[in-house]
Each structure stands twice: as C-alpha cells, then as structure tokens.
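Weekly modeling sync, notes
Attendees: S.R. (lead), two postdocs, one rotation student

Agenda item 3: backlog of single-chain predictions. S.R. asked that every request posted to the team notebook include the full sequence so nobody has to chase files. The rotation student volunteered to paste the first one in as an example of the format we agreed on. Action items at the bottom.

Example entry:
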Amino acid sequence: MPVTLPEWAASLNIPIDEETYNKDLDLTGDITLTHAMINGHIICNHERFIRYKWRDRKLHTEFKEEFGNWNEVMWKAADRDLRKGLRDYLRKYGVYITKDNALIGNNLVKYT
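Predicted structure, as returned to the notebook:
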C-alpha cells in the first residue's frame, strides 16, 4: 500500500523510502541509511509534532528522543527543504535552534 504523505510534504516532491516510513530507523545495525529513508523519517516525525501540537519543552523532548543520535552527516543527507522546515517549525513552537550562517544540520545536532 503506498504511503500517503501529508500535503505539505507531498508538495516538496522528494524521495522517501515507503518500506521504512513511519518506522524507527535502526542506527545501530548494518543498514546503510539512504537519502530516501532519512527524508521519510524526518517527514513522519515532523508530522507527528504537528498532529500532537507539542510545544516548548515537550516538543524539545520529543525532538531529542527522535533525533538525538543523529550526526551532521545524517542531517546533510536529508533534503535541504526538510531540514529548513523542521528547524523553522521547532523555532516557531519554542525550541531554540540557532539561525545563522552555519549548516542547518549542524545547528540541529547542537540542540538534540
């Protein structure tokens, strides 16, 4: 059954891995994470943040639980618009993420 993406994500027209969408990514195994797997994980969790309307400390806690083990390489593998959208969403709803000339992924790593 094909994955139905949220409207905001479908409009980006980026690759996602339908088999791993809405599943935890195994960061400890021998699986090589692909661009499409990483994109799908970000979209799925970003949508969860929106759906549950988490704000401030709860949003930061959930963000850290989902992305705390991510490094700059993983963030860089994600679509740029997804990184930017997640950063802006976190900032809008109470999670301070630096918005400077540094790479978005590097700033997201700092706050997990």
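Discussion: group reviewed the output briefly. The mean pLDDT is 90.
Action items: rotation student to repeat for the remaining queue; S.R. to check formatting next week.
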